[in-house]
Design brief:
Elements: E1 19-25, E2 28-29, E3 33-35, H1 47-50, E4 54-56, E5 59-63, E6 69-72, H2 74-87, H3 95-108, E7 121-130, E8 143-152, E9 163-167, H4 185-190, H5 192-200, E10 207-209, E11 217-220, E12 224-229, E13 232-236, H6 245-256, E14 260-264, E15 276-281, E16 285-294, E17 299-302, H7 311-325, E18 335-338
Parallel strand pairs: 9-16, 13-14
Antiparallel strand pairs: 1-2, 1-3, 1-8, 4-7, 5-6, 5-7, 6-18, 7-8, 10-11, 12-13, 12-15, 15-16, 16-17
Bound molecules: pyridoxal-5'-phosphate.
């Protein structure tokens, strides 16, 4: 496409040509529909607007050196959206249909897939909302699944660089047995005040502690957390964190590289023992952490003083990005080529 500086895109919305939609009515899902409008028309009493019946996903399509388009682990996103639906009583969207919708929307918007050299990608946003009208608190009887795409720039514009995060005990993004394990908008709403406060203080994100005892590490705003100590990849197990597909993939790659993976509750004191620490998620793959400031205890944990990421983070980052762009062999069958 002309007039687009592909390397200079932000993580923002750019209108593309088409989106794909599907309605659940009378107890069943209909056919996939293609729309060129980015407006949806819904009832003012729709449950997504009042009672938070809303779940979303985020994944990416990458253009390789070979010109082929690859989508990363979309079956995992499909299954996670089903788990989110069960968690807030919405109709589950079938996995095969989800994959078909993703293939369709990527193909239809082919001209928006950034070229390999730009380091940019096509962000894919599936959404599922309750659109049936209710006034009392109960699940809707009608749902809309839709998926749109928008090209996004590289997360690291000035190169792969660590950033600081902070701990603030006055905020939780999810309750101990709440909705932290599913990808619903409510968790994001609950994290906005703390997130803005952190950004104003110069931090990339809030590192949340477990909401019950504030003794263990949960996750980093909208990304999972891991630490590296010697030959070990250590990541929290918790009832209030989202199962990140990036983290799941990094765990596999860490094992492939001969690291020992520990997935267990991680006490806050352990932060002092890590050689490296990082956030991980679809947006950045890995965002290394330079320093964790515990703002309540007036304490800092420093992982990078020279502005460079740790070696293990860098190796994992290069490996996973390599698989996504088709530069590394896809030995685990994570990539779907869109033809
Ligand atoms: C989406 C999300 C992540 C990252 O998940 P990926 O599948 O790796 O993109 C992590 N934490 C939260 C709270 C999220 O919503």
């Amino acid at each position: 496409m002309e007039n687009v500086n592909w390397s200079d895109l932000s993580f923002g919305y750019m209108k593309t040509d088409y989106n794909v939609r599907c309605y659940f009515r009378d107890g069943k899902w209909g056919e996939l529909e293609v729309s060129s409008s980015d407006i949806i028309n819904i009832h003012m009493a729709a449950t997504c607007l009042h009672y938070g019946q809303e779940a979303f996903e985020g994944l990416k399509a990458f253009r390789g050196k070979d010109g082929k388009t690859r989508v990363f682990r979309m079956d995992e996103n499909a299954k996670r959206m089903q788990a989110s639906s069960r968690g807030i009583m919405m109709a589950e969207f079938p996995v095969e249909k989800f994959e078909e919708a993703v293939r369709k929307v990527v193909k239809l918007n082919e001209r928006f897939i950034p070229p390999y050299e730009s380091g940019s990608s096509l962000y894919i946003r599936p959404l599922l909302i309750g659109i049936g009208a209710q006034v009392g608190v109960k699940p809707a009887d009608e749902y809309l699944f839709l998926v749109f795409v928008t090209p996004v720039g590289p997360y690291f514009k000035g190169g792969f660089k660590p950033a600081p995060v902070c701990i603030m005990r006055d905020y939780d993004r999810a309750a101990p047995h709440g909705t932290g394990t599913i990808k619903v908008g409510g968790n994001y709403a609950a994290s906005m005040v703390a997130g803005e406060k952190a950004h104003k203080g110069g931090y990339a994100a809030v590192l949340y502690l477990d909401p019950r005892e504030k003794k263990y590490i949960d996750e980093c705003g909208p990304a999972n957390f891991f630490g590296i100590r010697g030959n070990n990849y250590i990541t929290p197990a918790s009832h209030s964190i989202l199962p990140s597909i990036t983290n799941k993939s990094l765990i596999q790659l860490a094992q492939d590289m001969g690291l020992t993976v520990e997935r267990r509750p991680v006490p806050i004191e352990e932060l002092a023992t890590f050689d490296e620490a990082a956030e991980c998620g679809t947006a950045a793959v890995i965002a290394p952490i330079s320093r964790i400031d515990d703002l309540d205890e007036n304490k800092s944990y420093v992982y990078s003083k020279d502005g460079k990421p740790g070696q293990v983070c860098e190796r994992l980052y290069n490996k996973l990005r390599g698989i996504q762009y088709g530069d590394e062999p896809d030995v685990h069958n994570w990539v779907s080529i869109i033809e």
